[in-house]
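Field: COMPLEX_INPUT
Field: COMPONENT_COUNT = two
Field: RESIDUE_TOTAL = 884
Field: MODE = joint
Values follow.
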Amino acid sequence: MSTTYVGALELASGAVLVSAVMTLWRRQVRSIVTMLSLQGMGLAAVAIILAVHEHDKALLVTGGLVFVVKGLVVPGLLRRVSKLDSNSRESEPLVNVPSSLVFAAVLIVLSYVVSSRVTSFAPTEATHLTPIGIATVLVGYFMLVTRRRAVSKIVGLILVDNGIALVTFLLTSGVPLIVELGSSLDVLLVVVVLQFLVVSMGRHLRTDELAEMKALRD
Amino acid sequence: MVLLLLGLGAGLAAAVASGALPLRPRVPVAASLGAVGCALAFAAAMRVLVTGSVESFHTMKFLPMIGLTLSLDPLGAVFVVASALVGFAACVYCIGYARGGLQSRTAMALLMIFIVTLLAVPVAASIVSFMFCWELMALSSMLLILTDQLHSREARSAALWYGVMTQLGAASILLGLLLITVHGGGQTFADLKAHSSGLSSTIRSFAFVLTLLGFVSKAGAVPLHVWLPKAHPEAPSPVSALMSGAMVAMGVYGIVRIGADLLHGGTTWWWVLVALFGAASALYGALHATTSTDIKRLLAYSTIDFLGLVLIGVGAAGALLDTGQPGAARLALVAALLLVIAHAGFKGALFLGAGAVERATGTRNLDQLGGLIHRMPGTALLFALSAGSIMAIPTLSGFSSEWLLLQGLLHGFADRSTPTLIIMLLGIVALALTGGLTAVAFVKAFGIGFLGQPRSSGAANAVDVAPTMKIAMALLVLPSIVIGVVPGVVMPLINRAATVGLGTNASSPIAKGSGLVLSQLRGAIQPAELLMGLVLVFVAIWFAQLGLAQRRARRVDAWGCGRDVQTPRMQYTATSFAEPLQRVFADVLRPQSDVEVTHVAESQYYEQSLLYENQVRDVLEQHGYRPIIDAAIRAGKSARRIQNGSIHRYLAFGFVALLIILVVLA
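Field: COMPLEX_OUTPUT
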């Protein structure tokens, strides 16, 4: 039982991080969104595995919610945005793909170094995996900084949020349902607003490359 | 306390009414409610002054977790009286005055909130309650500057200056209060008072200096006065009256409350500092008042001057108490508090009068006025009485209060220690010099503004203002007359307040009676008898004239220097009247004059037009504040280089910062 639980937890958490790194690798916006969807499901899996292990029904509901919002609804919305644009490729990111992957490796090492202190407070199977959550946050932030397309930036933002959610699941075995509900809906709202913004940007500027928006400074 | 709470409640109800009512009934209803609130607060404060009791109130509502603590003692009551007087008059005045911007929901509601906070600041009795009311007072008054002329550049600049300076001042006050509470404990004023004696003298001095900086900037003391001559002229007149008559006095209240009451008086140099601020303000304010041609700017500078005198009184009281002269100290503090009330009366009336003039003629520039005594006789009479009071003409309030201050300073000479000698000498010199300069300024304000021939069509076509506006002015002239003619009547009341400020129960050197008679010390005036004497003399002259002057009055033209036509432009103007003084004090005022002559094309011996410009700018603003502001703008511009509009760069800043924090923590 215990080894199965640990193995499943490691697999699901690992999937979250791997899909985060994969978003850096892929250039086609559609496949980036697919990676995001996979990551949302991985995150839901972590929550459900923890819920089964701790016999926590509320956490089970949270896992279901995460699955629906982050695995299906948010990627679905983003896919709709990317469909509007035929040439939806992250053509040249500010940092190219190979360097991004090297940098991601550095970030992952950094997060292991940083979180050794956190895990030492309560060394359990779950808390040993917190570096993965922190690495996801950093990779997401990195994506937010280096990618030019607005959609990629939104994905970066959601990666950060997913990373934070992963850390909370692993450290506290789930936050109260209402908090998770709040933060998930928050993300949904952000995505809806950004979707609107991206669409109108595309209409006015014929691109969603944010570098074009310099002239809007006061 | 119930009376005061009802008063504050009525004020808040007025604010709500201003927000809820439609345009037509808005001003009368809100103003009446506000006036009722002021009247109730006035009654509550007078009861405390008469009985000498202290009334307290505490509720957990309004402010979360800490609650609101109010306490009305005689010291606070003096300032409540000042606020209530001006507040009542301002409400009545509004009924006739409010038009345009001031009529709006926001403006009326802000005005009512401003009045309520003016009543509440002197009764707030905990750090949180005090700062809450203080900040609300600052904010509402700052927004009120903008209500009449939202789009004028001067008004916006004035509001900005005022906002920045008042916020810096509030921060300084808060720091000082926190310093006391951190080292002493407790947050109500009663706690602070109980614990402050255990503090080290360094902490107490730091706390005093911090709060002092905030309070003197509110009181418009030089060199922290720069906001005042900008804000007062730009605000609508009832607001100027409230700011000048009541709000700046809150700075004095703060100094007395924190320094003398909560910190138990401290050391002598504190009070030397206060008096230095006072002397500098008195002289600087009076000088600028004489050269101002904008009537409200003149009044604003004269506010700086008068608050300077009050600060001299407060400083002298503190220093004399420390050097063991409770009698003279009491005289000085009573004089300072009496000056506050007197100032609220006449300066409020003057600002309301200036508002009436502006409303009737469309200008505040004295050089464009003239002859208003025929067109606005009521306003002219009330303005003259108030101007007489501020010029310290006997039988009016300015004279009684300044006389008391002078007595306090003179009797302080009994002590020969250096700090008190500095204060006494500075104070007496400042009092004497500002007395003269104020007389010049207000002879100019009244003489140029109301006498002679009108200098513009606006002044020529002026029509006297609504009766409610004149009633409001008359209400504020009343205290001038009462304090002026029978000052002895209010003495016991002010004395109770001084007892709180001084913290000693030493007997008052002022004997009972209608006049001011100083027992133990030498000195007495009986304004009531003086007035009766004056009336008798005038009646005698009148009778004598009746008997002697049998011939009818002859009306002839005045000698016109050989010219046929006399035009109003040949009269003295405000600028020319003040010109000699401007020359004498050129080193301080640094006036900038410019003459530009355009010649006729045919011959350069005949001029076509002549342009004369004369400007007196605030030297301290030009040379003290400008460099600081310029440096801040330069720093801001250089910081802009890292901001290039690229969203990637902004995000990268955050990312790099996060990584640095992680590496540092790991």
